[in-house]
Each structure stands twice: as structure tokens, then as C-alpha cells.
Amino acid sequence: MDRTVLTQTELGGVMPLVARGKVRDLYEVDGSTLLFVTTDRISAYDVILANGIPGKGALLCLMTAHWFRVLSEAMPDLRTHLVTLDLPSHIPAQLRQRYQNRCMQVRKLEIFKIEVIVRGYITGSAWSSYQKDRTVCGIKIQPGLKESEAFPGGPMYTPSTKAEQGAHDENIHPDEAVEIVGARHAKQIQELALSLYTHAAAYALERGIIIADTKFEFGLDKETDQIILADEVLTPDSSRFWPADSYKVGEPQASFDKQYLRDWLASQGLKGKEGVAMPVEVVTRTEAKYREAFERLTRR
Could you give the maximum distance between any two Cα atoms of the chain, in Å? Predict the structure, then answer.
């Protein structure tokens, strides 16, 4: 797989730039289609690092496409925003190799203004909240849980706000999500997210990976009033992946995601700092973790 580092896209002369996110740049293909370009940028604590991870964009793009196929087979009624992995025909020949495997043409949708998080295990901010007052996103949780333990009642739907770039998402109670997206859509989103997580968690566990938690995004097809699975899906950027063979309740876990990067930033006093460049060792180890997750899940 291509290990070229792409942190900045330059397709503005070919099609209009719609937005730049932390990792993805969005261009308009036509009135109903966007081009998602997944770069090699990486962020932690809501800050984009100065350098990127070689080949990360292609791994994330291809992993998302893989999950769309897997989940659509498991859930025949599921609809996703993916149109094709093919590049738009008007991207010139000299740029096509640079952008191959990093791009998805997707349908334009009205994206719901919440981040849809499903947690199967108590870790991260959920564990911190639980230690304080035995709640997660304002939901009371039974006493006696240990760090990294599976939630006894099964996966939890714990939405958050969708903050502008540079700001922080805030965990909210599911009732607050109802106020943001409306009761009918909130119920559908919750049910769909929990079903997606359940199918994905079982699939990943067969391949030696525990999905501790993950984030989904959904959009609305206004013509059909259907909820559409959008954006990236079940990648190391949007999920916590743990190796099943070393899982142990009561302690933090090894991971196949950017937790290693987060830990390095915290240990160096760089948490939330702008302009930080990762040293070679951190880049190499982070790349290896992403690649192993991809290879285990896709068997490619």
C-alpha cells in the first residue's frame, strides 16, 4: 500500500472545496455528490498534529468501505452514503495515483448534529465519569464496575454534541439528543447505532479485536426520510480497538488506535498543544497499529 504522506489536498482547481476537517477534505463533484478525500493527518485531543502518518488515509478509506460491505450484508435494510471508490473522471491523470484509494464519492445529505457514540466497555471519558459519580453521560450505572469491563446491561448509546473544528464535543444524555434531532429520528438513530455496533463487535471479535467503543455519524435522505450511515465507520480514528488475546479487566488496555499517540502527548506535557510534530518512533508505531487493525479486520 502507498506510504506517501498526504497532509494537504489541492483539488481546488478541479472542483470546489467545501470544507477541510481534521482528517478529511470535502469537494463538490456535482449537485448531489461530494468527494471525501482522506488525508494522512492525525489529531488527538482535538488538535491536528504537524506531521502525518504514512498511508493512514488509504487505510481509513478502505477500512470504511470494507465495513460498509460487511454491515450491509448483515443488515440488508442499511443504507450508506457511499456511491463509489472510483475517482471522478475530471481529476487529471497526473493526480490520480496520488489520490487513488483515499477517496470516496458520497451522496450529499443533511447530517444530524450529534456524534453517535456506542460504548461496549467502560474506558476513557466514560471511566473517568463513572469514577466521579457512577454515571456515564448522565446515565446511572451500577456500582462495582472495573476499568475496561463490559457494561453488564450491554452496549450503551451515549451521544455527544458535534462541535466546530478546534472546539470540544460534549457528552450529553440521550434525552438531550432528542431535543437536537427530534424524538422520531433520535429513536431510529439509537436503535440503528446499537445494531451496527453489535454486528461489528461480533465480526471483529472473530478476528481477535474487541471494539471497546466507536462513533457513528448519520445523515437524512430528505426525499425518502431514511437515515443514512455516513462519514467514516469503525476505523482506528473513530473507535477504540483492543487485542482480544491480551484483554484484562481492571486496567487500561493495549490498543490498535491512536491511544499510543495520546499517551505520548500526555507524557510529554503536550496534550492539546498546537503545532506538535511527532518523532519518528511515534509515527512508526502509530502506523503499525493502524496497519495491523486493517489487516486483521479485512484479512488483506
Answer: 60
* Contact indicator for 253, 212 with CB cutoff of 8 Å: yes
- Give the amino acid at 156: M
Of the pLDDT bands very low, low, confident and very high (cuts 50, 70, 90), residue 257 is confident
What is the rounded CA–CA span in Å between residue 169 and residue 166?
Answer: 10
Q: Is the pTM of this model over 0.90?
A: yes
Three-class SS of residue 38? strand
Distance from C-alpha of 19 to C-alpha of 36, rounded to nearest angstrom? 10
Q: Are 268 and 32 in contact (CB under 8 A)?
A: no
Q: How far is CA 142 from CA 125, 130, 138, 231, in A?
A: 17, 9, 13, 34
CB 211 within 8 A of CB 238: no
Give the DSSP per-residue string, 250-271: TS----SSTHHHHHHHHHTT-T
Q: Please, are residues 272 and 47 in contact by the beta-carbon 8 Å criterion? A: yes
DSSP string, 127-171: HHHHHHHSEETTEE--TT--TTPBPTT--EE--EE-PPTTS---B
DSSP letter string, 26-57: EEEEETTEEEEEE-S--EETTEE-SS--TTHH
Contact yes or no for 155/120 (Cβ under 8 A): yes
- Helix, strand, coil percent content, the chain, rounded in steps of 5: 35, 25, 45
pLDDT 10s digits, 84-114: 999 999 999 999 999 999 999 999 999 999 9
Q: What is the pLDDT of residue 3?
A: 61
Task: Choose among 247, 230, 66, 60: nearest CA to 150.
Answer: 247
Q: How far apart are CA 38 and CA 25, in angstroms?
A: 7
- How long is the chain? 300
CA distance 190 to 177: 10
